[in-house]
């Protein structure tokens, strides 16, 4: 049996490579489609296409935001470099400010370090086979952790959806039982109304009963109940099949909502109207949950 996956999750893995701590973080949130956004150091931007291919193999839906960072300067990957031209420029600027403001204090190193860009990281411009393999494996492992979290969240969603679908099934059964009297109630209501308006002695009894029967038949909710049960069965089957299924579940919910609206319009018994409200509430709660399913 496949499992449902939530579209929300987060995973982060840090590993050491040649003295540098390399961290891969991936976050996923709801989206109608698969959207991938990556922030990468310049040294590995050429791997972006391969990273996205790995993501597409493991995830079918959701907004995926990933980043990779090297958190050490003492490595072969990146080195600390000063910017001589900027340092000269800032020194002249500070000297000019000191003179204009008539400040006697001498210029110190601390004053120059206030400008963050006087020191920068200079990254190597090539990626060897070893680093490439390391990065691809790190991305793959982080994605596996992300999917494990999405699967865990998916199981919570599955349990909640199972209960709510059963609630809808139970309410539908109650509506079906009451629905047997729905058409009869409408017929009697209309008949009594007409009698009151024009008097029993003026009625063509047979013709009037035929017309009222046709009208009452229009409030019969049998077909809506049958279709609702069919939608419930299909919804359950798709839950069992597992992700990716979120879009299909959304479509089924639209159909269920349509049947519910029709029942509401046809209801002539107040008890049915109350039960239909319960159906709508459960369907809306399910719809909110389904938005989070891959």
Q: Would you kindly provide a written description of the structure presented here, covering whatever features stand out?
A:
- By secondary structure, the chain is an alpha+beta fold.
- The protein folds into three domains: about 10-70 and about 125-150, 2-Layer Sandwich (Ribosomal Protein S5, domain 2), CATH 3.30.230.10; about 80-125, no CATH class; about 155-290, no CATH class.
- Helix content is about 60%, strand content about 15%.
- It contains nine helices and six strands, in the order E-E-E-H-E-E-H-H-E-H-H-H-H-H-H.
- The protein has helices spanning about 50-60, 85-100, 110-115, 130-180, 180-200, 205-215, 220-240, 245-265, 270-290; strands spanning about 10-15, 20-30, 35-40, 60-70, 80, 120-125.
- The protein has a four-stranded mixed β-sheet with strand order 1-2-4-3, covered by helices on one side.
- Helix 5 (about 180-200) packs across helix 6.
- The longest helix has about 50 residues, at about 130-180.
- The model has no long low-confidence stretch (mean pLDDT about 85).
């Amino acid at each position: 049996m496949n499992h449902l996956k939530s579209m929300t999750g987060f995973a982060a893995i840090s590993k050491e490579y040649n003295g540098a701590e390399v961290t891969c973080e991936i976050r996923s949130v709801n989206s109608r489609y698969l959207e991938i956004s990556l922030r990468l150091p310049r040294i590995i931007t050429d791997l972006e296409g391969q990273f996205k291919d790995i993501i597409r193999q493991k995830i079918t839906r959701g907004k995926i935001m990933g980043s990779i960072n090297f958190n050490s300067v003492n490595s072969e990957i990146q080195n600390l470099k000063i910017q001589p031209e900027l340092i000269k420029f800032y020194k002249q600027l500070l000297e000019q400010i000191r003179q204009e403001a008539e400040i006697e204090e001498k210029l110190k190193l601390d004053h120059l370090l206030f400008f963050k860009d006087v020191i920068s990281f200079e990254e190597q411009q090539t990626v060897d086979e070893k680093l490439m393999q390391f990065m691809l494996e790190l991305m793959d492992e982080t994605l596996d952790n992300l999917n494990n979290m999405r699967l865990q969240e998916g199981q919570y969603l599955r349990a909640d959806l199972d209960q709510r679908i059963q609630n809808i099934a139970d309410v539908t059964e109650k509506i079906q039982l009451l629905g047997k009297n729905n058409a009869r109630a409408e017929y009697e209501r209309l008949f009594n109304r007409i009698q009151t308006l024009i008097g029993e002695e003026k009625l063509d009894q047979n013709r009037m009963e035929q017309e009222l029967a046709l009208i009452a038949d229009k409030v019969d909710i049998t077909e809506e109940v049958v279709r609702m049960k069919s939608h419930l069965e299909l919804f359950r089957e798709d839950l069992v099949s597992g992700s990716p299924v979120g879009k299909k579940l959304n479509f089924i919910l639209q159909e269920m909502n349509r049947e519910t609206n029709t029942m509401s319009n046809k209801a002539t018994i107040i008890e049915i109207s109350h039960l239909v409200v319960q159906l709508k509430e459960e369907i809306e709660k399910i719809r909110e949950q389904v938005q989070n399913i891959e």
